[in-house]
Amino acid sequence: MGWTLLTGVPGARGEEPPAQAAYPARLLAELIRFPSVNPPGGEGALAARIVAELDAAGLETRLIATPRLDPNDPPRAAAWARLPGTGDGRPLILLSHLDVVPADPEAWQTPPFAGVIEDGFVYGRGALDAKGVTAVHLAALLRLAQEGTPLERDILFLATPDEETGGLLGARYVVEEYPELLGNAEFLLTEGGSIRPARASLGGGPPVPSLWGITITEKGPCWLELTTRGKAGHGSAPRPDAAIPRLIAALDRVRRIESPIRVLDEVADMFRVLAPDAPREDRVGFASLASSLEKDPAFRRRFLLNPGYNALVRNTISITVLAAGSSTNVVPGEARARLDARLLPGESCEDFAGAVRDVIADPAVEVETLLSFPSRSSPADTPLFEAIQRVADRLDPEAIVVPRMIGGFTDAHWFRERQIVAYGFVPRWLGRADTGGIHGIDEKVSVENLVAGVDTLVAIIRELDAPQVGPPPANEAPAP
């Protein structure tokens, strides 16, 4: 596969950048054409290509080989680059990941790894999560390099493998084995937050302004595997202690677990901001979430029926994998299930797994922890948050900027553990229909969003470096 599009782009000495509307989309289309599905990942070829092009743009680069679960798997790697600053400020890391979740080609209108650009959109697995992030970060870095004026701080580009399965063989590996590449970084920007576009009010009132959601904390994973065993035999002679019935009984108890409600300050603040746009009967509840969930049964019922809202105020469990027999007339000797539990900050996976064992109340059911790490938070009162706020004020004076928590998790926590302030925020304007493509069918992102994302990220980096007064530079774009 020839990667000619990056030759002579921003960062190449003495050459003009291509049309801003074309470059990020063409770049993303090329990234998508590397089918880095995890497992097994195979991100090595993609990382090598990115590193080669960044190196050609005159940046300091590293291709970091990362571990594989199986030596027969294709190579895995992370891409790193540094745009040097004057050293008057500590570095900012732009973090994304190169692996993607699987995609069934039969279910897609366009082939998921063809990188199709059509009708103003780039289609393909990873367009949003997270090769689209990589494309925005890379294009922004190259533009800053092409300008040739050093910033106060180094800008570090890092695109890692393995995020979709927990980041143990990607971000964690880089952080632990190559800490020198982090350069005493102060800040990090990665996936996890975006901009909800302005829209008409549901209640017929004034228009609802855009919402810039900056993720400062996430839920922590507590992935568990349940295993039951019994005597294998012929299907014509059912056994009361068979593995599958025992597992079904355990899962029936698990699915009825209802964790207590706990409203974090970040969640309360977010819903307070959302209150004016809520259905009329829920505005008071949103404005005072904790007390309303405690004292208003009707509001609590409506609120918890929304799976996304429910996940922000309690620990959750999803039954995601079942594995047992393969023949209709054979009783298997073993059955397994996997649970995807997500815990609120401050909760312990060890304690949660113990509570699950207590609920199952069957010592013959083994409960093993597959993945666990604690949730960590970053403060919102920082120069980076303030820089995002000022750029939002310039581009859209009515915009609301709010710190938030998400129900999922990203690789940000590996860096928060190193005392780096990490925010989940990529400047792209995504409505509910857009975000539905994440891990879904026909994932896509608009060309306008990519262009605006690059422009706005560059503006944020400049603002962090030297706060601007007066009108924005000409290349700062409004929302698409």
How would you sum up this structure, described in words?
The protein is α+β, with helices and mostly antiparallel strands. The protein has three domains: 23-201 and 376-465, Zn peptidases (Aminopeptidase); 220-259 and 316-374, 2-Layer Sandwich (Alpha-Beta Plaits), CATH 3.30.70.360; 262-314, no CATH class. Helix content is 31%, strand content 21%. Helix 8 packs across helix 9 (297-305). It is globular. The two termini are 32 Å apart. 43% of the residues are buried.
Briefly, what is this?
The protein is α+β, with helices and mostly antiparallel strands and 480 residues long. 31% of the residues lie in helices and 21% in strands.
